[in-house]
Amino acid sequence: MTAPKVRSGDVLLLSRAASPQFFRPITVRVIRVLDRATYDGWLWIDAYQLGRDGLALARRSLYFMPEGAQLVVTPAVVPGRRRPVGRTPVRVGG
User: Quick check: helix, strand or coil at residue 68?
Assistant: First the structure.
């Protein structure tokens, strides 16, 4: 199995397959891949840990094996139709 290329914006599921520290799996959104010296096959990232609702809970620096990480496919966000803004006449002068 080849390790996935980790990039900014990726959403990953990290479990024990990625590192023993993830006894309870967590989902993260990668902020950036850090350029730190590591053992072969390991990687440092800055990421936001995500809650069940997909919102960030905490910012973390994490050390893991990308080969054990699972890329989470997130649905594309389709912007909804915007409501027009009500405009009122502007009074100029006194």
Answer: helix
**pLDDT over threshold 90, residue 2:** no
Domain locations along the chain:
11-71
Contact at 8 Å (CB) between 76 and 54?
no
pTM given for the model: 0.74
Sheet holding 43-50, edge to edge: 56-64, 43-50, 26-33, 11-14, 70-71
- Give the separation between CA 26 and CA 67, rounded to whole angstroms: 16
Q: What share of the chain is helix, strand, coil (3-state, %, to 5)?
A: 5, 35, 65
Q: Judge contact between 61 and 33, C-beta under 8 A.
A: no
Residues 52-86: tens digit of each pLDDT: 988 999 999 999 999 999 999 877 666 777 777 77
